[in-house]
Amino acid sequence: MSSEKAKSTIVIKKIKKGGHGHHGGAWKIAYADFVTAMMAFFLLMWLLGSTTKGDLKGIADYFQSPLQVAMMGGSGSGDATSLIQGGGPSLTQQTGQVKNGDVESDRKRRAQERAERAKRERAQMEALKAKLDAALLANPKIAEMRHQIRIEITPDGLRIQIVDDFNRPMFALGGAQVQPYMRDLLQEIGKVLNEVDNKVALSGHTDAAPYAGGERGYSNWELSADRANASRRELIAGGMAGDKVMRVVGLADSSLLNKDNPRDPLNRRISIIVMNKIAEEKMNKAGGEIEAGTAEDVERSLPGEPGAETTAGSTAAPAEAAAAPAAAAPTTAPAAAPAAAPAR
Questions:
Q1: What is the tens place of the pLDDT at every residue in 305-342?
Q2: What are the backbone angles phi and psi of residue 223, rounded to the nearest 5°?
Q3: How far is CA 317 from CA 37, 75, 133, 166, 174, in A?
């Protein structure tokens, strides 16, 4: 018995424990692709459900002819209402593109700004007009000339027209010498105009009576310019700063108020325009080539018959009857000028 035990072999079996084999990570990539695809799918469904029919058609047109839409524009190339923007610094603007909604909004904003500015300019001109009317009415020396003065507001500012009268001419006949009552009027106007910062434009007009020397010598062109410049000097003498004058021109008989009677005294006039800032900017851009106020506006501002209604916006007193035509007798022109024809 003991010998059998001695002969038996004892075997000890040891189990070596080890980890499971590596199965790989490909399934993770596949799962991530699946999740990404699902997100893209749901995002596409949301976009399609939120896009209008017109934009959907634009998108379809883009994919049918992408080059044509990209070059010519239109729906589908990043326009106003599409949620699929054409690219740019923000979600509402596209680089190289302008949305229809932005253009319309900008146009309305600029139109509103212009309207508000014009309203402010008109209010300023109305205040100046009231002040000027009060100053002229308070001066007894100017009362007799009141029917020769017309003050009104135009799109370019405040226009002061002083028309001639056969019985009370503004200047010496055929010359640019200012009459005393005209001097008082201009100096009173200059005092008021110096209280505003607006620029002033002056223009002189004559009737069609020619000088004896014709157009080659001293003519209505020189006469109208001399009278406008003489008016400028009187405005400055009244207290208006010289740098307020933006333009002084002589228009001779090129813009007659009474075309049926070219020698009517009403054709002889001085026009003083207190320009608003809009007209001043236009004149600066055009180099002084813009006439502030049209000939039609000037004609409407003529004094009418006694009791007649005045032009809208004017506070001038009703005009007296039109003066008789100038005398036919020739007069003497200024020194160094040839003899003049009928009075102007």
A1: 433 333 333 333 333 333 333 333 333 334 344 444 44
A2: -65, -45
A3: 85, 62, 10, 19, 29
| Domain limits for position 213 | 123-300
| 103 occurs within a structural domain | no
The total number of residues written for the chain in this structure: 344
Instruction: Quote the percentage of the chain above a pLDDT of 70.
Output: 66
Report the domain count for the chain. Answer: 1
pLDDT in tens, 153-168: 888 899 999 998 877 8
Contacts of 34 (CB under 8 A, 6+ apart): none
Q: What are the strands, taking DSSP E only, across the chain?
A: 149-154, 157-163, 200-205, 245-250, 269-275
Q: Which residues are 201's β-sheet partners?
A: 247, 273
Cα distances (Å, whole numbers) of residue 311 to 123, 275, 301 = 18, 19, 6
Whether the CB-CB separation of 273 and 204 falls below 8 Å is answered with: no
Question: Residue 3: inside a domain, yes or no?
Answer: no
Does 218 fall in a domain? Answer: yes
Give the burial class of 16: count Cβ atoms within 10 A of its Cβ; 0-12 exposed, 13-18 middle, 19 or more buried: exposed
SS3 (DSSP) at 102: helix
Displacement of CA 4 from its chain's centroid (Å): 128
- The CATH number for 245's domain is 3.30.1330.60
pLDDT tens profile 94-144: 444 555 556 677 788 888 888 888 888 888 889 888 888 888 888 887 877
Residue 318 lies in a domain: no
Contact 252, 222 (CB under 8 A): no
d(CA 283, CA 323): 35
Three-state secondary structure string covering 26-74: HHHHHHHHHHHHHHHHHHHHHHHHHCCHHHHHHHHHHHHCHHHHHHHCC
β partners of residue 94 = 97
